């Protein structure tokens, strides 16, 4: 499963991706990101630590000649950091034309979530709430929708 999902974004596909989200697990929590950001999913790749990187970044990886910063979402969200497991994946995303890797515990599925299905986070004051775009109910489960525009920046 070097790359179980590869996706290019021609303009015609944008409408078909509008309400599609890739869901994943971090600990016991369900999260989602808009599929339009997802380029591919990989097993754990070698990571080179970088000096002066923010603490929530593991370092960088070389993916087919592209240098990609790898962020551990557990660190970013203030969760307990655990060792990688057999289900740990690197989600490769493109945000503002820049590639990023996101370390997640496991990938779940692609689901449809409409804008009407997403409600704002109940508390707007915390740092973590700035990384959560909203809360969606999917198949009787809560999915926290990640704000890809803010999670990779300070």
- Could you give the order of strands across the largest sheet? 8-1-2-11-10-9
Number of helices: 3
In N-to-C order, the SSE pattern is HEEEEEHEEEEEEH
| Main sheet record | 6 strands, mixed
Strand coverage percent: 35-45%
Q: How many E-type strands?
A: 11
Helix fraction by DSSP (H/I, runs of at least 4): under 10%
Question: Rg to the nearest angstrom?
Answer: 15 Å
Number of domains: 1
Mean pLDDT: 88
CATH H-tier superfamily:
CheA-289, Domain 4
Indicate the CATH class.
Answer: Mainly Beta
Instruction: Please identify the structural class as seen in this structure.
Output: mainly beta
Distance between the termini: 32 Å
Q: Provide the CATH topology.
A: OB fold (Dihydrolipoamide Acetyltransferase, E2P)
From the 3D coordinates, which CATH architecture would you assign? Beta Barrel
Task: Show unreliable segments.
Answer: 1-5
Shape: globular
Protein name: Purine-binding chemotaxis protein CheW
Organism: Acetanaerobacterium elongatum
Domain CheW-like: 18-154
GO cellular component, one term: cytosol
Structure description:
- Helices cover 8% and strands 45% of the residues.
- The chain is mainly beta and 154 residues long.
- It is globular and about 40 Å long.
- It has a single domain, classed as CheA-289, Domain 4 (OB fold (Dihydrolipoamide Acetyltransferase, E2P)).
- The model is unreliable at 1-5 (pLDDT under 50).
- Strand 10 (132-138) and strand 11 form a beta hairpin.
Short précis:
By secondary structure, the chain is mainly beta.
């Amino acid at each position: 499963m070097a790359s179980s999902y590869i996706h290019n974004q021609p303009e015609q596909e944008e409408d078909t991706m509008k309400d599609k989200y890739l869901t994943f697990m971090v600990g016991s929590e369900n999260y989602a990101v808009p599929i339009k950001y997802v380029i591919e999913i990989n097993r754990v790749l070698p990571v080179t630590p970088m000096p002066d990187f923010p603490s929530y970044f593991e370092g960088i990886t070389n993916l087919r000649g592209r240098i990609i910063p790898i962020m551990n979402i557990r660190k970013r969200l203030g969760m307990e950091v655990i060792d990688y497991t057999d289900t740990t994946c690197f989600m490769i995303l493109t945000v503002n034309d820049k590639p990023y890797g996101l370390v997640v515990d496991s990938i779940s599925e692609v689901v449809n979530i409409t804008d009407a299905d997403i409600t704002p986070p109940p508390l707007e004051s915390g740092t973590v709430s700035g990384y959560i775009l909203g809360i969606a109910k999917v198949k009787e489960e809560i999915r926290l929708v990640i704000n890809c525009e803010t999670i990779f920046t300070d």
